[in-house]
Amino acid sequence: MTWALLISAIAMYLPANIFPVMAVTSLGNTQADTIMSGVIYFLSHGDWPLALIIFIASVLVPLLKMIALTYLLLSVQRKSPVRKLQRTKLYRITELVGRWSMVDIFVVALLVALVQIGNLATIEPGIGAIAFAAVVILTMLAALRFDARLIWDN
Question: CATH fold of 2-151, please?
Answer without folding.
Answer: Butyryl-CoA Dehydrogenase, subunit A; domain 3 (1.20.140)
